[in-house]
Amino acid sequence: MIAWFARNHVAANLLMVTLLLLGLGSLKFNIPLEVFPTIEPRVITVQVTVPGTLPKDIETAVSIKLEEAVQD
Questions:
Q1: pLDDT tens-digit series, residues 41-65
Q2: Prediction pTM value
Q3: Taking Cα atoms as reference points, which of 34, 62, 21 lies closest to residue 13?
Q4: What contacts 70, CB < 8 A, 6 or more positions away?
Q5: Which of 23, 24, 66, 72 has the most CB atoms lying inside 10 A of its own CB?
Q6: CA dist., res. 11 & res. 34, Å (int)
Q7: Which of 44, 47, 36 is nearest to 70 (CA)?
Q8: How far, in Å, CA of 18 to CA of 26, rounded?
Q9: Integer Cα distance of 12 and 4 in angstroms
Q10: CA distance 12 to 14
Q11: Residues 33-38: what's their mean pLDDT?
Q12: For 1-72, where are the alpha helices, taking DSSP H only?
C-alpha cells in the first residue's frame, strides 16, 4: 500500500487533506474535555485528635456518631 501511495502522490495528498479536515472539524464540534473530572469519593478519611482522651472515649463520642451521620 505504501508503494501505491508513493506512485500516486495525488491520492496520498488527498488522503492527507481529508485527515487534516477531519481533525480540524473535530475541533469545531467541541468534544467535551475535562481537565479535572468530577470524581465521587467512595472512602472518607476522618482524623480526630483530642489530647488526653482514651481511644474508647473517642470511639463513643466521635467515631460512632460520624459513622451514623454518613451511613446513608
A1: 788 788 878 888 888 888 888 888 8
A2: 0.40
A3: 21
A4: 44
A5: 66
A6: 37
A7: 44
A8: 12
A9: 9
A10: 5
A11: 78
A12: 2-7, 9-28, 55-58, 64-70
